[in-house]
Specification:
Layout (H helix, E strand, L loop, with lengths): L1 H17 L6 H18 L6 E8 L8 E10 L3 H18 L1 E8 L2 E8 L2 E9 L10 H5 L7 E9 L3 H8 L6 E4 L6 H11 L2 E8 L19 H14 L5 E6 L7 H13 L3 E4 L8 H8 L3 E3 L2 E2 L6 H18 L1 E6 L3 H16 L3 E3 L7
Parallel strand pairs: 2-5, 6-7, 6-13, 6-14, 7-8, 8-9, 9-10, 10-11, 12-13
Antiparallel strand pairs: 1-2, 3-4, 4-5
Helix pairs in contact: 2-3, 7-8, 8-9, 10-11
């Protein structure tokens, strides 16, 4: 009897494994088409939609296989998002998919799975213009002649919750995304659809003793071809980048040969450059100007001291610089104190007539 029971268990285990259902590539893509069609129908064929395949590396050197589709959908308001969620549930029932929904900062994410295997990640983004009514009275008081302030938030790509907090802020920001990180492409896509401007936060070699170098960065001694190839690879992971600013780079930005190699690569791609000024010896802005690359320099660091009160003082300094000079660029990071200070400090600045703009508006 025990032998029979053991054999039966083995057979059952074998049959269960053999009966595990999978979704073919054509089946997955057919569902993708249905999801896209549902979104377009809800928004009168005006939705901006992008599909980014997620590939799974094949074993033993074979070609990569399609693992899932990441779908990014822009909808106008929460009512459209609710209608899309209902349509997605109908599609899921039809194809025996399970759905997990998460929401934050104007982005609703639906993860779809077929018998436990994820097939789709659907990101529904409500653009900033549709969600910023709370700031509308202050913004209506500004005009084209107002002092202009661009705030760049660096170092996005590591932390999902920190990025969500940045994207939840109800005013336009320039977000600078680090390349080659698991969240780089996803956050760049969401930020751009939200209505923010996206930059590549370009890793460069640092002079500081003990500074941890990035695995991939621009280093002194690179040839022009190496710089171009490295930049190209970074940009592939940060879609929609309109410009770049340096991440670290105290040694790199002070090296004329390296900056001379970088600037033509930026010019050929139509990208602007913002010098983060991580070192007083930087020549990056001068080299950009000589190469005909639209450029600007950071004037204020917001959060060298990571307390809300200190950051509010730096934000006020940036506003006073803008009022004196007509414009200024400030750089901060996705830290809780910085986000809290921006949420508190920006509306009063706008009420004083300071206009928040993207970094691209301040390069020349």
């Amino acid at each position: 009897m025990r032998i029979f029971a053991a054999c039966a268990a083995v057979v059952l285990l074998f049959l269960t494994g053999c009966g595990k259902k999978t979704l073919s590539k054509s089946g997955l893509r057919a569902i993708t088409g249905e999801i896209v069609a549902a979104a377009q129908k809800i928004n009168g064929h005006k939705s901006e939609i992008a599909i980014r395949p997620e590939l799974q590396s094949a074993k033993h050197g074979g070609s990569s296989a399609l693992a899932a589709d990441n779908i990014y959908i822009s909808l106008n308001d929460t009512s459209q998002s609710a209608a899309f969620a209902q349509a997605l549930q109908t599609i899921a029932r039809k194809h025996d998919l399970s759905i997990t929904e998460t929401a934050s900062s104007g982005v609703i994410r639906f993860d779809c799975a077929f018998h436990g295997t994820r097939t789709h990640a659907v990101h529904v983004v409500t653009p900033l213009a549709a969600r910023a009514a709370v700031h509308a009275p202050a913004r209506q008081s500004t005009n084209a002649g107002s002092p202009r302030l661009a705030i760049i938030i660096d170092d996005l790509g590591y932390d999902r919750s920190a990025a969500d907090a940045v994207l939840a802020l109800g005013f336009p920001l320039t977000v600078s995304v680090l390349p080659h990180l698991p969240l780089s492409g996803e956050l760049a896509e969401e930020a751009r659809r939200r209505g923010d401007q996206v930059m590549l936060h370009l890793p460069m070699e640092s002079e500081t003793d003990g500074a941890k170098p990035e695995d991939i960065e621009l280093r002194v001694g690179m040839s022009a071809a190496q710089v171009d190839a490295t930049l190209a690879g970074m940009l592939e992971t940060v879609p929609y980048a309109a410009g770049v600013n340096n991440h670290q780079g105290s040694r790199a930005t002070a090296d004329p040969a390296l900056m001379q190699a970088l600037m033509p690569a930026l010019r050929q791609r139509g990208l602007f450059f913002v010098d983060s000024r991580t070192d007083a010896k930087t020549v990056a802005y001068d080299m950009a100007e000589r190469a005909g690359v639209p450029a600007a320099s950071r004037k204020v660091f917001l959060d060298d001291t990571a307390s809300r009160d200190a950051i509010l003082k730096q934000l006020d300094l940036a506003a006073r610089d803008a009022q004196r000079d007509g414009f200024t660029i400030a750089i901060g990071h996705p830290r809780p104190a910085t986000i809290a200070a921006l949420a508190e400090g920006i509306p009063p600045l706008e009420a004083r007539g300071v206009r928040l703009v993207f970094a691209s508006e301040l390069v020349h």
